[in-house]
Protein: Capsular polysaccharide biosynthesis protein CpsC
Organism: Ligilactobacillus salivarius cp400
Amino acid sequence: MDKKDEMLVVDIGNILQAMRKNVIFILCWGILGLIISLITVFFFVEPKYNSSIDILVNQKENNAQVQYAAQQADLQVINTYKDVLTKPIILTSVLKEVKRTDNYQGNLSTLEKSVKVLNQTNSQVITVSVTDKNAYVAVDVANTIGKVFAKKVKKMMQVDNVTIVSNAKVNTTPVSPNKKLSALIGVVVGLLLGILFAIVKELTDKTVKDSGFLTDELGLTNIGSVYHLDINEDDYGAVKVIDRNKISKNNSAKEKISTPRRRRV
């Protein structure tokens, strides 16, 4: 193993050791991330609701061959209908209606951003999905779009092949924010921050904790150890002064001298 590999192994080992030593610290950061994410989701992020209406593009013909040709024509024109559904020619009338009935506070740009048009491949059904802060407003906007589109497309395209398959219904379950996903993200971010701080703390700690670091890592020679004198008030100093008067009265009396304890560093 060359020096680069050795350095890599040592670095990874140090990182793992830092993580093991700071497990509680890292877990606390994970819990903190969870708490912050939940507080943000429940108190600062406004929930949004979604409602959808299905529109069928289909021309009715008695002749089978003519019916097949009409279906192919409908499939080709669906992309045009999808574009028309999000254009001002439809949404302007929708905006006026929902402002009158629901006191809608948004403008044309806000309304356009809240509308999504979906269509499965080779399907004649167009789904118009509306997202809003109010579940009932989302329903009214979606149904109004279907009604206005079915009315205007007859004049614009000179066709009568649009049918409302299913009207939008109230869905009181918010589609955003995703509370479970937000909680998971909070925990993961918290744990990552905890690991990062633990590693930085360990790498920036220059304290020599073991003589092996000096001999093995730095290549120095250990020529001895210095002991720390653990001294308290009772045994302060190496020699305790004895009262001379007490010695003169009782020469045979012996005073015990407390020696300081020592602790290796």
Observations:
- The chain has a mean pLDDT of 78.
